[in-house]
Amino acid sequence: xxxxxxQAVTKVxxxxxxxxxxxxxVDLTLHAGELTVLLGPSGSGKSTLLNILGGLDHAxxxxxxxxxxxxxxxxxxxxxxxxxxxxxxxxxxxxLVASLSARENVALVTDIAPNPMSPEEALDxxxxxxxxxxxxxxxxxxxxxxxxxxxxxAKRPEVLLCDEPTGAxxxxxxxxxxxxxxxxxxxxxxxxxxxxxxxxxxxxxHRVIRFQDGRIVSIEHNETRLTPS
Length: 229
Ligand code: ADP
Ligand code: ADP
Fold this sequence. Notes:
Elements: E1 2-15, E2 18-31, E3 35-39, H1 46-53, E4 61-66, E5 69-70, H2 76-86, E6 87-90, H3 102-110, H4 119-125, H5 141-153, E7 159-163, H6 171-188, E8 191-195, E9 207-212, E10 215-221
Parallel strand pairs: 3-8, 3-9, 6-7, 7-8
Antiparallel strand pairs: 1-2, 1-4, 4-5, 9-10
């Protein structure tokens, strides 16, 4: 029951004389409803892979599918539509609009999505229903990240791709953000991939995929975390 599948994905960056192989023949599957953690040293290709899955970047070689849709065959316009309709992104930095309240930041997305939840519902899910009229500057880093997560899920994406969502947070606040992502995966069934160094997430994950030098070196399947049926 694959949501994403890659076959021999390679990514080469060439800048002048310098040639960097960021991904070197990656085959992986992200299963429907699962929470997958991507681990590995800095520079091992995790972000590059997440960006290719989310349609933000192109593979140099190999093939990528989102369910039956082959992303590696789409033109830019179709890839943009895929991103808009199916993918929520969370990055290390929150990119909230400073002059808008939490609710208004989320409403930027819900106003244009075809089948959104309300901003209030999205903020409730991340535990910020009581702060929806606060502005970003009045919120802690962890709360701002949870607003960014509410914004990402409000359009009800099938997948949520998170690149170091706790990278700018202390570990206690980071755990609250990871717990919010875990709750979204459990309650909404959103297929989720998270790049993180936070050890706490590993017991929450269905699968932990470890990268090194642009390759997958191990995949652990957590049998104690029930897989959705
Ligand atoms: P990770 O997310 O595991 O830290 P990345 O996917 O960001 O790894 O990077 C993998 C490799 O690709 C690194 O060597 C990095 O320097 C290189 N790289 C990433 N993005 C670019 C880019 N836009 N141009 C050139 N090299 C890049
Ligand atoms: P063009 O710009 O050449 O008109 P389209 O944007 O219509 O191309 O997309 C090309 C094909 O990809 C379409 O036939 C469509 O079925 C498929 N496609 C594009 N985006 C999606 C998507 N988000 N979900 C499912 N299929 C898509």
